[in-house]
Structures are given as C-alpha cells and as structure tokens.
Design a protein that fits this description.
Elements: E1 10-13, E2 20-28, H1 32-39, E3 40-42, E4 56-65, E5 71-81, E6 92-99, H2 101-113, E7 117-118, H3 123-130, H4 136-147, H5 151-161, H6 166-188, H7 199-219, E8 230-236, H8 242-250, E9 268-274, E10 277-283, H9 297-317, E11 321-326, H10 333-348, E12 353-357, H11 366-376, E13 383-385, H12 394-409, H13 417-442, H14 447-465, H15 471-478
Parallel strand pairs: 1-7, 8-10, 8-11, 11-12, 12-13
Antiparallel strand pairs: 1-2, 2-6, 3-4, 4-5, 5-6, 9-10
Helix pairs in contact: 4-5, 6-7, 6-14, 7-13, 12-13, 13-14
C-alpha cells in the first residue's frame, strides 16, 4: 500500500458523481489551514482561520483558477475542524457549494495547487482507522453503509459501525490481556513464590472470554455453507478479456484465448472456491449486434453469433452475480451503445453487477478508465481494475465476488459481508487458542503454555479489529472504497 503516510494533506470530491444541487470538497491533514487561506475567502473579513479553536461553520467563497489565467469565485459554506475533533482526528475541512462537476473539479484543482494532493480510495477512512477513531470492523461498516441497498443491510452496517461487533471482541481482548499480564508478572517473580492470579480465577476469565467469542461466532451465519452453488457469469463484448479472466480466476486453461473476437461460442464453466465460498463461474460468448443473412458464409457466422449471444443471455439470466468485463478496445460508438443496452437490461432485471476493467497492464488502459466508468452506469467504486497477465487486482476481485455473494445470502448475519469473509478464519483460530489455553489451565500444564496460547488468541483478535494488520489487509479493506470517503 502506497498511502500509509498521514503527514501530508489530502483532498477529494466527497459527493456523488454527476450533477446535483450541492457538492462537497473534503480536505484532511496538517496544512489544511494554510491551503484554506489561499483558496477560501470568508464573507466576514474579521474571521481569522489561524486563530479558530473549535469546529466552525463559515459562509464565504472559494477561488477558482482556469488554465487561461482567469479567476472566479464560487459561493458556498466552509465546515472547518481546526482540532482533532474531526473524522480523521486531523485538521479537516469541507467546502459545500454547487454540485456542478466542472465547478467541483476546478475547486479540487485549486486546493491541489495550494498544496494538497489527491486522496486515494478510502484514504479518509484509513486515516480515521490509523488515528484510533475506529477499528477495522467499523471501517468496513462505513463502506457497508454507503453500499446498503436494503433496510436490513443498512441496519446491520449501522449496528456494526456503532460497535456491535467491536464491543464484545474488545471485552474478550481486555479479559485475555488481564490474564496474560497476571501470568507474566507471576513468571517474572517465579522464584518469590508469589501468586498473582489463582488457577480458578484464570479458568473463569478464560471461560468468559471463550463464551464471548463463541457468541460472536454464533451470530455470524452465511449461506456459503449451503450446498447450493452460486452462479457467476462473465459478460461483455467480444475481446473484452473474459476468457483470460476465466483462466486467471480458475488457474486453469478452461477457455480458449486468442486475439480474434468471438472465439468463445459456447458456455464454459468451472467450480471454484473463493474465500470459502463455492461458486460456479461461466464464460460465454460476447454480445454482438448482428443481422442474419442465410445465403452467405457471413450469414452462417452471424447465426453462430446470435446463438452464442442467446447462450450468454441464458447464463446471465440464471446468474447470482454478473461480472461485466470492459476492456480498452470497447471505445467505439457501437460498443458504447451495446454496453449501455446490456447494462440497462441488467438493471431492469435486478441483476447484481460488478464491473471489471480488464487489461489494466496495457499502455492504453488509462485512457479507457473514464470511458469504463461512464459505460458501467453503476457506482464508480464498482469498477475493479484487473490484469489477467500480471495478476494485478485478481485477489481483490476474488474477495469482492465472495463478498457480493455473502451479502446476497447472509440475511441472518449480524455483520457485513466483507467482515464475515475477512474474520471468519481468525474467529475460528481465536476460539481454538482460547480453548487450548483453558485446557492447559484446567489440567495445570504450566503457565508458560497458557501464556503462549493467550498470545496466539490475542494475535488473532488483533487481526479482526485491526490492532494487528498488514499492508495487504489494509489494501483489501480500504481499496474497495470510492475516492473521497
């Protein structure tokens, strides 16, 4: 992860893409005040941003500079947090103004010209996590709140955000740390024959911690344990990289890959495990807009294409999740029209869609990113960039597929889908470690063994709440956010 630094100032458009009545520019970092002095003019000239000591709402205007040197001002409202009482626990600000994409882009450019840098996906919430504002399960709940498409999912996310999962696990962690501290103190003074904690007390604390973890584990339910296979279909235009992606996800040469569009004309399937979720992945022919001419060789080819398109339509119709693959080549007017038509059909039929921007290792990929976002007709965060050749983005795609499936199926789960996937193994390992510590305590196998098992359980709990983390874990969690959150 290349954005663990928190000592610079970041800025981003924090409101939704597209035109609206109001848009928001968000900033966070040590130089917020210096940047605001350059780009913001309060209506009340007596206001001194450098002397403010509490969160303040200020009416004023932001200065916009065009490339031709012209300068304009746009009225709006500044929300300024000069202390650590902000979302990120850094000096922060939000400027609320007209929701014109052009105005917001110029306002963002003005802040960057004044010393800020563009924020990366999830960087504001990442800073909140790193500052101790929230733990990792709550950070995941923030994304779940943003993505909620039902009241049940929203309630689950809000419950987790308020500490519904973090609270019980934190209590278990406190109990385990308390027992470990007493044990290590006793080990330090073993020659003095001083008992810091009795064996019965130790057993009681360990049993209480185990009960708490088991209650949390019991609350987490997932249809991933079902015998029903979830169906994932690869869709898109010919030569969008579907077959290469199929082979990359399965690790086998299931589909034929060539540079010739339309190579795949029938349905290729594979069953694979993604983060403990078993899915059936289908690769089918690309959708094409063709007319049938019966008396020519071209007509025979077109008939094959029509049949192939019908196969893909059937696969998509029965799919629980559709991966809409879009490559750099899909940039013509006809391609755009076909993709827009396909997206409309998917939305009208209430299909769950994940847009996959393929071939991210190509030199012409960056020019296609904006085009891909427009074609997807869904949230920009739903576009995941992957390369079947280099493997970039594949791990995140696997996790996102499993997460989408869990979200669809876990109606009884008390945690959001991404948290369930990420923490399921750690919760099991925590329960095993505490059980082993309890067994050692009851059979008086030695305080060193008990302490070692407690440390193991604390490491596993730490991975759940984020007191123990790696760059890969943070990238998996925060890389799924959209920019500005």
């Amino acid at each position: 992860m290349d954005y663990l630094t928190t000592d610079d100032t970041i800025a981003a458009i924090a409101s939704a893409a597209g035109s609206s009545a109001r848009g928001v520019i968000r900033l966070s970092g040590p130089d917020v005040t210096k940047i605001l002095i350059q780009v913001f003019s309060p209506d009340e000239q007596t206001i001194d941003l450098e002397t403010l000591k509490k969160p303040t709402r200020i009416a004023g205007a932001i200065k916009l500079s065009h490339q031709d040197g012209a300068t304009h001002v746009v009225p709006g409202t500044l929300l300024f947090w000069p202390t650590t009482r902000s979302y990120t626990r850094q000096r922060s600000a939000e400027f609320h103004t007209f929701g014109s994409p052009a105005i917001l882009s110029l306002a963002l450019a003005a802040t960057c010209n004044a010393g800020a840098r563009m924020a990366l996906p999830g960087e504001f919430t990442l800073r909140a996590f790193l500052s101790g504002r929230m733990d990792l399960t709550q950070a995941e709940a923030v994304l779940a709140v943003i993505d909620s498409d039902s009241r049940q999912k929203l309630d689950t996310a809000l419950e987790q955000l308020s500490g519904g999962l973090a609270g019980p696990l934190a209590e278990s962690r406190r109990q385990l740390i308390s027992v470990l501290a007493e044990l290590e103190a006793g080990l330090d003074f073993v020659e003095e024959d001083i008992e810091f904690i009795s064996n019965d007390q130790m057993v009681d604390h360990l049993q209480a911690a185990l009960n708490q973890v088991q209650r949390v584990t019991g609350q987490i339910s997932s249809r991933s344990d079902s015998q029903t296979l979830f169906k994932v279909a690869l869709a898109g235009l010919p030569n969008a990289g579907k077959s290469s992606l199929m082979n990359a996800l399965t690790g086998e040469q299931r589909s034929i890959v060539t540079n010739i569009p339309g190579t795949t004309t029938d349905r290729v399937t594979a069953v694979l495990q993604l983060d403990g979720v078993e899915v059936e992945l289908s690769d089918t022919a690309g959708i094409e807009n063709v007319s049938v001419e019966n008396d020519t060789a071209a007509g025979m080819s077109n008939q094959i294409m029509v049949a192939a398109s019908q196969i893909q339509s059937q696969s998509i119709h029965h799919a629980d999740l559709v991966l809409l693959c879009i490559g750099p080549e899909q940039s013509s007017f006809n391609d755009r029209r076909l993709l827009e038509s396909q997206v409309r059909w998917l939305i009208e039929n209430n299909k769950h869609v994940l847009v996959v921007a393929t071939k991210s290792d190509r030199e012409d990929f960056n020019t296609a990113v904006g085009h891909i976002a427009r074609l997807s007709a869904v949230s920009p965060r739903r576009s995941i960039e992957v390369s079947s050749n280099s493997g970039a983005g594949l791990e995140r795609l696997r996790f996102e597929i499993a997460n989408q499936i869990v979200q669809q199926s876990s109606s009884e789960s008390s945690v959001v889908g991404s948290t369930l996937l990420r923490t399921r193994a750690s919760l099991g390992n925590t329960e095993t470690a505490i059980t082993d510590a309890l067994h050692a305590a009851r059979n008086q196998l030695g305080e060193e063994i008990i302490a070692a098992e407690i440390r193991r359980s604390l490491d596993e709990l730490g991975q759940i709440v984020g007191t123990v983390y790696t760059d890969d874990i943070l990238d998996l969690v925060f890389g799924r956010f959209c920019i500005g959150k």
